[in-house]
Task: structure prediction
Amino acid sequence: MRAPAIKLKKRILALLIIFFILLLGLTTRLVWVQIVLGEHLSEEAVQTRTRSISIHPKRGHIRDVEGRDLAVSLGADSLYAVPAEIPNVFEVAEALAPILDRDTGELRRLLSEPTTFLWLERKLDPKISERIRRLDLPGLYFTQESKRYYPKGSLGSHILGFAGIDNQGLEGIEAYFDEILRGKDGELILEVDAGEREIPQAVHHRVPAKSGDHVYLTIDEVLQHIAERELTRAVAEHEAKGGFILLMEPATGRLLAMANYPAYDLNEWTEVPSSRWRNPLICDTIHPGSVFKSITAAAAIEE
Result:
């Protein structure tokens, strides 16, 4: 009777040891997951169940010396899609293609991609966005973005430059003072389910965008208009390829006008060759009529 009892005790002890090892391993794993990896896994969980949409700020205005607007920012609708919320990709693509002037097959391919966010068209014309709203298609949403507009058209085109689709300055004053004009992006955070669909009553957090600051130039809109008008007349009269006028205030050296020909419409900058964008008065080396004239001019400015 003693031998079976000893064997039973050994088996119980072995089971206790195995149980203890398993418990120790489980405890170690819990400590590793909850303490060592806890912060990292929490961040991943938040990223998995939330979707973030950037909100571009309103770009600051560019104004002349009298405070008249030369470049402004207007609100415009941008269209994006959440493919997981679109039950019938073919119907949505066929409905959108003629409105957006896009190929139906291309839209089907884009809307079939396994992504949580997809830009379809940025900064739409108000009439187009209204047509899309009336369709009330599932999985399509609008967000407000800032669209750059130049109320004077081609006036001061080589001075002002232009901004791109993502609110970034690309040429001229728009590029040089981009950090001041751009502002700070905001963010819209939405909570989604496992199917990447927005949860209506879940957490919705909005960080508002900070608008950019305005930039005031020494350029006078009236003098700029006169300079460009006279330059255009002179180029036509002399059948020249181009020309430029620089108008300065003698007492201070402030620039009052800077005209270049040919100019271009800032609202249609994508329609002109890039060679037209550069400002020859800034970028080109201009040789004086004689070497001494530059010294005379410098002395006059100094006095």
